[in-house]
Design goal:
This protein has about 600 residues and is an alpha+beta fold. Among the domains are: about 285-445, Butyryl-CoA Dehydrogenase, subunit A, domain 3 (Up-down Bundle), CATH 1.20.140; about 455 and about 465-590. It contains 20 helices and eleven strands. The longest helix has about 35 residues, at about 285-320. Bound molecules: flavin-adenine dinucleotide (FAD).
Length: about 600
């Protein structure tokens, strides 16, 4: 099996040539000292960590899994040492607040680092990703004293963190959750209840685990408006700041599941555990969304990272595997057969994976850049504009990256035939590991509903219009670029069609609210198709520019143009089917009687 290698050349391309990250950083005071050289150095050492430390533990971690014994969770062999290497490198606090020991790096860089870690070993990557997300929620909503005490310990990885939302009867519908928080008369609270499916709820990697728990205060209104957020340490810190006595937090079991077997998915019990309110009472869901939005992008990156690894394995295999002859005549007449790469269907599969994952990577950097504008740009108008893009694109990125990531893993597996199904080549593990990204952090169906309902039909802020402006100004800037005319024509047509379908959806939903749910998944796919087309146009422009420079790596940039054309001609036609599916309305979806399902 080919071990994961970080695709550094492709990452440099999207970061520097497509997104022009160094120019963006130089223009914002908080990132002015983040130069292209610094970003490259970060990517180099992340690549080394991913391929030399994390990737070698991917298979053994899957085989060994986590062990649950006497209330404690043991991670697979090698994970503790890898965690030490990860935390000593400062990777948990990569985007953390420098005032509390974080490194303040831009998100457009961090998305590439996360993609590498996810591609090398998703199970491992989840532990620090959750800590980074929880830290972000604390930066945004916690008191100064909580930030000063907890953030340095979380950024250093000495302590880790979780996100405790889900209960047995409350998954998507968090308004149903029952965990209680009673004031203890000393400014803190007693937290009581059980949570399920908690990633990293218990493990042996860090000295303490800090749970961010959603719970209800005694007088809280019913439903989602009565939920508050609490910080609940597994062990209460003692006077010296070290993990002290146990705090009424216990792990009841770990789940046995399809993939990410080295990631501990825990049942967590809180029995009158001491907790500290984060943010305002009854505003817990909004605070938790700070974390969830961060996690959603990271979970999307799990799809891209695993598709990248799968493509690396499948491409190497397809170059070597000899089966059949090319339809146009043998290319390897001396051999027993031709390499399977001669077969158009094998090429179709591999190019589909490549086209999707490279556009996804470019989109992740684009969303990362918007997050950086929100965070670092002093101009309130630019900030507000970028915040609208982030709100619109977060559910699209989570669902599109993970759906296409999973499809990419399956396509790559298919390219190996039966050898993809057996364990040896690692692709069956990637398929199992990628599958969860479509489900957790809010299922992709629920992401689509968020997009179609809140971000499109009920939107009052002009979220879609902000995206349309970006695409239109790009097209305007390229108006005289004849070399890529076909790509731009496709983008223009896809934009017009998506706008028209969006208007149709808004009108149809006014007549029948079920139209939103019936349209949501194909609508998200349609919008992501437009976005991927936009990304391929931007990549094609950057590649054309590079080709005009003397000494440029011709093959690399020509490949970008070839894949851009593949995407335009082979993948964009699906937009017509998606538009037709959406406009067929909800009648046939709702017609089948519930009792006969
Ligand atoms: C391995 C793993 C790790 C996890 N890690 C964490 C974690 O760290 N912290 C945490 O809090 N949770 C975690 N989860 C929980 C995860 O986020 C939930 O499983 C997920 O959000 C879905 O909730 P549910 O399983 O209760 O499904 P349900 O909410 O019961 O949904 C079932 C189906 O109904 C659909 N559905 C539900 N409501 C609607 C609606 N209104 N409209 C349309 N469709 C709807 C869903 O899309 C889904 O297809 C994890 C889960 C797993 C499996």
């Amino acid at each position: 099996m080919a071990a994961y290698q970080a695709p550094l050349t492709d990452m440099h391309f999207v970061l520097h040539e497509v997104q022009r990250a160094a120019e963006l950083c130089a223009a914002m005071p908080g990132t002015a000292d983040v130069t292209a050289d610094l970003m490259d150095a970060v990517l180099e050492s992340a690549a080394q960590l991913a391929s030399e430390v994390l990737a070698p533990l991917n298979r053994s971690g899957d085989e060994e899994g986590c062990r649950f014994e006497a209330g404690r969770v043991h991670t697979p062999a090698g994970f503790r040492e890898a965690y030490r290497a990860y935390t000593e490198g400062g990777w948990v606090g990569l985007c953390g607040d420098p005032a509390h020991g974080g490194q303040g790096m831009p998100k457009m860089l961090a998305v590439l680092v996360e993609e590498m870690m996810m591609g090398a070993n998703s199970s491992f990557a989840l532990y620090p990703v959750l800590t980074a997300g929880a830290s972000l929620a604390l930066v945004s909503h916690a008191s100064e004293s909580i930030k000063a005490f907890y953030l340095p310990r979380l950024y250093s990885g000495e302590w880790s963190a979780t996100m405790c939302l889900t209960e047995a009867h409350a998954g998507t519908d968090l308004g149903l959750l029952k965990t209680r928080a009673e004031p203890d008369g000393q400014g803190s609270y007693r937290i009581t209840g059980s949570k399920i499916f908690i990633t990293g709820g218990e493990h042996d990697l860090s000295d303490n685990i800090i749970h961010l728990v959603l719970a209800r205060l005694p007088d809280a209104p019913a439903g989602p408006r009565g939920i508050s957020l609490f910080l609940v340490p597994r062990q209460l810190p003692d006077a010296s700041g070290k993990p002290g006595v146990h705090n009424g937090v216990s792990c009841g079991a770990i789940e046995h599941k399809m993939g990410i077997k080295a990631s501990a998915t825990c049942v967590m019990h809180f029995d009158g555990a001491t907790g500290y309110l984060i943010g305002e009472a009854n505003k817990g869901l909004a605070c938790m969304f700070t974390m969830m939005n961060y996690e959603r992008l990271s979970i999307g990156l799990q799809g891209i990272g695993l598709a990248e690894h799968s493509l690396q394995v499948a491409s190497a295999y397809a170059r070597e595997r000899l089966q059949g002859r090319a339809a146009t005549g043998p290319v390897n007449p001396a051999g027993s057969a031709d390499p399977i790469l001669v077969h158009p269907d094998v090429r179709r599969m591999l190019l589909t994976v490549r086209a999707d994952l490279e556009a996804g990577r470019a989109l992740s950097v684009y969303v990362g850049a918007a997050l950086d504008t929100v965070h670092f740009d002093p101009d309130p108008q630019r900030q507000a504009r970028a915040a609208r893009l982030v709100a619109l694109l977060t559910p699209v990125a989570k669902a599109a990256f993970s759906d296409r990531g999973f499809e990419g893993c399956v396509n790559a597996q298919q390219a190996l035939g039966g050898h993809g199904y057996v364990r040896e080549w690692g692709l069956e593990q990637n398929v199992r590991d990628a599958r969860i990204a479509q489900i957790y952090e809010g299922t992709n169906g629920v992401q689509a509903l968020d997009l179609a309902g809140r971000k499109v039909v009920r939107d009052q802020e002009g979220l879609l219009e902000t995206l349309w402006e970006d695409i239109e100004s790009f097209l305007q800037a390229q108006a005289t670029n004849a070399a890529l005319k076909e790509c731009f024509l496709e983008l223009k047509a896809a934009l017009a069609q998506t706008r028209q379908v969006s208007d149709w959806l808004r009108q149809a939903a006014a007549g029948n609210p079920d139209e939103i749910g019936a349209a949501s998944v194909p609508y998200l796919r349609l919008l992501s198709q437009l976005l991927y087309c936009f990304m391929w146009c931007r990549m094609a422009v950057a590649a054309t520019l590079a080709l005009s420079r003397p000494g440029a790596d011709k093959a690399f940039y020509e490949d970008k143009l070839t894949v851009a054309r593949f995407f335009m001609t082979r993948q964009m036609p699906v937009r017509h089917a998606l538009a037709a599916e959406i406009k067929s309305g909800c009648a046939t979806v709702m017609a089948f009687p519930a009792e006969r399902f």
